[in-house]
Every structure is written in structure tokens, then in C-alpha cells.
Amino acid sequence: MGLLDGKVALITGGARGMGEAHVRLFLEEGARVVFGDVLDEEGKALAEETGAPFVHHDVTAPDEWARAVTTAVDMYGKLDILVNNAGILKFRRIEEMTVEEFDRVIEVNLKGTWLGVKSAIEPMRAAGRGSIVNISSVEGFIGAEGMSAYSASKFAIRGVTKAAARELARFKIRVNSVHPGAINTSMAMDPEIMREVDADAFLRSMVTKRFAKPVEVSHVVAFLASDRSSYCTGSEFTVDGGLLTGAGY
């Protein structure tokens, strides 16, 4: 018996990286999954492999949110779970970052998450309950050089999560945030970032001295999506190998 048997989930940014790991684990745990991304080629390939329906989904566009939610409800009759996973990272020091680059990070990471919460309310109310999992970051607790926009967006997701948890508890909709640390994904390993970061020094500073596999985050997300976390809402779950224990947080 799977952790998510009978549940219907919508996962954003699901074509690769952590999102792909979420899609695969949710399917293994018995969920019926619809996933979206702007990466059409990767998304269609994953859909063909797994059987999970893929929709092109720009999380900054309200009409594309409506289409993604409608797809899930039309196919499976309801929506129980939303994983707001889509996000981008642009490494730029404040002095060098353009306003357009800053706005784009905020639009995708923060506005995209807010639109997801907003779009899930009606179908989850109709289902009688729901679970929304917002993917933030350890950068939502600490700042890092070159990541002002990313950190700002991930700090803000914490606020959206807590406000939504208070607003939606009356509808039995839970809202929590997950804060990954050093995860082995193409976004985290972007060559532009790796040129600017002292990888050896970073590893020495870590409590658990390795990068995590994406599925290690997915297991926490699946727990929060499931009924086993029925008394968790407005909470923040770090998946960081102890990274924040030495961060003064």
C-alpha cells in the first residue's frame, strides 16, 4: 500500500531535477500525477516513460495555472496535492544584476508559488481537504553572495506559506514549506555558479559532507503531501544535511 494511494497531485517544474524525482516517487507511492514545466522536450520524454500526463506550464501565467489544474481535475476528478516546485536561480552580485534579472527570479519563484496556492484553493475545497507543499531553500533562512534575488524569493515563500496556512486551515487545506540544501541537480551545479563557489571549502563546512540525491527531498515532500502529516501546517522542513546548524540560525 502506497503512502499516496488515491491522491491526485499536480507538480510544477517536474521535467527534471527535484521535480522529476517528486514525480517518480509520487507515482511509486500510488498517486495519480499531472506535472508541468516549460521544458517541453524533457517533460514529454518523462511522460512517455512514466505515463504521468505532462502539460506545458509557465507558473507566472494565471491562464496556464488554470489549464494545469483543470487537466488534473478533468482527468482524475479532483486535486488533493500541489507541489510548488518550479524555480530558477540566477547567480549575480547585486552591483552586477539587472533589474530585469531580479524581476524574473521573483516572478518565477515567488509569484509562481503564490499563483499556485491561489489556483489550488477551489479544487481542494471541493475535494474537502488538500496539501500544498512549497519548495523554498536553505537560502530562505540565510543569504549567500550572488544570490540576493534567489534568497529574497525563498525568504518570501516562507511568508506566503504561513499566511496561506492560516487562511486555508478552515478548509482543511494544509500548507508547508520544504527547504533543501545542497542537492545534486543541474540548477545547483550550473557552471556559472560553480565558477564562483569554492566547492572544497563548501564541502568542508557541511555537517553531512555530501550533496543529497533529489529523491531525499522527495521523501519529505511525499510525507507532507500524505495524511501522515495531518497535524502539520505552516511548518518549515529543512533537508540540508545539517547545513543550518552552523549558520547561526
Description:
The chain has 249 residues and is of the alpha/beta class. The protein has a single domain, classed as NAD(P)-binding Rossmann-like Domain (Rossmann fold). It has eight helices and seven strands, in the order βαβαβαβαβαβαααβ. It has a seven-stranded parallel β-sheet, sandwiched between helices. Helix 1 packs across helix 8.
Protein topology:
Blueprint (H helix, E strand, L loop, with lengths): L7 E4 L5 H12 L3 E6 L2 H11 L3 E3 L5 H15 L4 E4 L14 H29 L2 E6 L12 H21 L4 E8 L10 H6 L2 H7 L8 H12 L10 E4 L10
Parallel strand pairs: 1-2, 1-4, 2-3, 4-5, 5-6, 6-7
Helix pairs in contact: 1-8, 3-4, 4-5
EC number: 1.1.1.47
Keywords: Lipid metabolism, NAD, Oxidoreductase, Steroid metabolism
Protein name: Glucose 1-dehydrogenase
